[in-house]
Design brief:
The protein has 198 residues and is an alpha/beta fold. The protein contains 7 helices and 5 strands; from the N terminus they run βββαααααβαβα. The radius of gyration is 18 Å and the shape is elongated.
């Protein structure tokens, strides 16, 4: 993977059950935090709003292709119609998702404040997003309002044409990061890896 020498970056892996925030300086991990906010909260909210199972809500979440920038964008894109979601419930889903992202942004800023207490104030050259939540439209813009650094998605598949692979890769990368950040090493060839354990 691309190295981050001579720069300070924040890496945010926005996953299903949690978000892992790493601060990397000159290719060295200097600070990390696990925040228990993930896309699973959005799915749970959809389940409650629509009165459907969590599994059904997961499908709705994936197909709704939620745009966090504005409610009107979601109305104009018509994904909610194909899923037979009434506009009032779409509005509830949109508001709930933004509330979850707001809570996550607050936790990220608290983490940065804690970091600055220990390490002093430093400038970040970029924020790298990964995990399934990085596919949410507008997520980069919301984070950039709080962090004064450019927000970039993982750059590994820029020239790859398959959109499905490009959408799934951040999730796979985030899963790998979770394992790397674990307290023990995992030998993938010996069957020690289990997604259910993450």
């Amino acid at each position: 993977f691309s190295k981050v020498g001579d720069e300070n970056i924040i890496q945010i892996d926005f996953g299903h059950n949690k978000t892992i925030m790493n601060i990397i300086s000159n290719n060295t991990l200097v600070y990390t935090r696990c925040i228990y906010i993930g896309t699973g909260l959005m799915i749970r909210s959809i389940s409650e709003i629509l009165g459907i199972s969590y599994k059904q809500a997961t499908t709705v979440f994936e197909r709704l292709n939620l745009d966090l920038t504005s409610y009107e964008n979601n109305v104009h894109r018509h994904f909610y119609k194909t899923l037979e979601i009434p506009k009032p419930k779409l509005k509830l889903i949109f508001n709930s998702a933004n509330e979850i992202i707001h809570d996550l942004s607050e936790q990220i800023m608290l983490t940065l404040k804690s970091f600055f207490v220990d390490y002093g104030s430093i400038e970040f050259s970029r924020v790298m997003l990964s995990g399934g939540g990085s596919n949410l439209i507008g997520i980069g813009g919301i984070f950039s309002e709080h962090i004064s650094a450019p927000i970039v998605a993982l750059p590994f598949l820029d020239d790859y044409q398959d959109e499905h692979i490009k959408a799934v890769f951040p999730i796979a990368f985030g899963t790998a990061l979770s394992c790397i950040n674990g307290r023990r090493t995992i030998n993938y060839l010996k069957g020690e890896f289990s997604v259910t354990g993450l």
